[in-house]
Amino acid sequence: MEKKRSKFSATLCMGLALFAAQFGAGNLIFPPFLGRETGSSWISGFMGFFIMDVGLAAIAIASVVLNRKGNVDGVVGKMGAKPGKVLLTTIMLCLGPCVCIPRTAATSYELGFKTIAPSVPLWLYGLVFFLITLGLVIRPSKVVDIIGNYLTPCLLAVMILLIVIGIINPLGASVSPEEIVPIASGIQNGYQTLDGIGGVLITIMLITAAYNYGYKEHEDVKKMIVGADLISAALLAIVYGGLTYLGSTASGIPEYAGLDQAGLLVAITYHLMGKYGVYALATIVILACVTTALGLSSIVGDYFEELTHGKLKYKQIVIALIAISYAMSNFGLSQIIAIAGPVLNILYPPLIVLVLGAYVEKITDNDHVICVGTYVALITSILSTISTSGHPIAFIDNLPFASFGLGWVIPALIGCGLGGFWKKDAALFSGKELKAGKKLEAE
Fold first, then answer.
1. Phi, psi of 2 (to 5 degrees)
2. ∠ Cα 18 31 243 (to 5°)
3. Checking CA distances to 2, which of 57, 357, 388, 404 falls within 20 to 30 Å?
């Protein structure tokens, strides 16, 4: 345990660590792409992005320490113990081998290595990338921690420099978007970062950090995590807002129109900072993605070892998830994003209801209010995803706010109202308490 720091110093360190975890290199590609899509309406698009990325992550993190139990179970457990565990496991698969880890390799290739050595194919780069990751995750080294401590400040410095140059010398004039609902586009891009969906789990890291700084009382930990949450949210808002603006200045330039997420950021960087700026960005992104993949692999490995009560060993799990991640990474960045889209569209609405439930429970202690609302949100989000994938469902498409990607909101509110008619001690679901997270004991 470290020597006890002042609350201000500890909160600041936790806030910067949280920013580093959420700022992951893979997330850099979404704001400029959103800006290009929304053009002169980039502020509206960014508001949708901010709410579903930074905003949702912030309230998700706070919800873990503000609910009655003071742990992850206090959030997801409202839908039932076993269903809650299924939701956590699904989130872990998204953060691990299905989306996030493969995306670190694909992003670092498209945004980094491909600009330096374009003749090397993705499958070969990915093989080396994941062999290095596997070696480090099985035998952790302090070198990784040292590199990680310097990568985020370097990446942040490059991004801020890029934004400042882009403001002084914009690429061009923003144009009005065609057939795009800016807020809806912002919401969809916000989903893709996975910051919101990972917010509930990342709080465990912050609780551990507060313990290591010498603070164990519930009120102290709660205030420090909320403070760290606000610091990270403010920094993310500045960086993501600036990158969205940069993308909007490229909206009227034809040669930027057909570029994917990574290609667009590379092109903007090259225009504003030249080839050396691209090389600097590429190098930092590659190293940052390795450390991100390492961290995620370790977290997912620990989770599944605990989930299986040690029947599956950590080493076996990380070997399997690295192999799956490598296979997924070969689909390429654009395809990974396309595959993740429908899954995230389904997962986010029920998770949002559960997160807000941590605040609603101050008004009502009947968990069925949130439980029923969560399942209604889940069913509606499944139907909405089906409807937008080429099989239109008229009543779903005509729901209030459906054009903004929020058609699930009114049905979820109705579900919450119906849930209030169940007696609070009447069991809708049964099962053992979830063990995810660490309970904070109020003293």
1. -75, 160
2. 85
3. 57
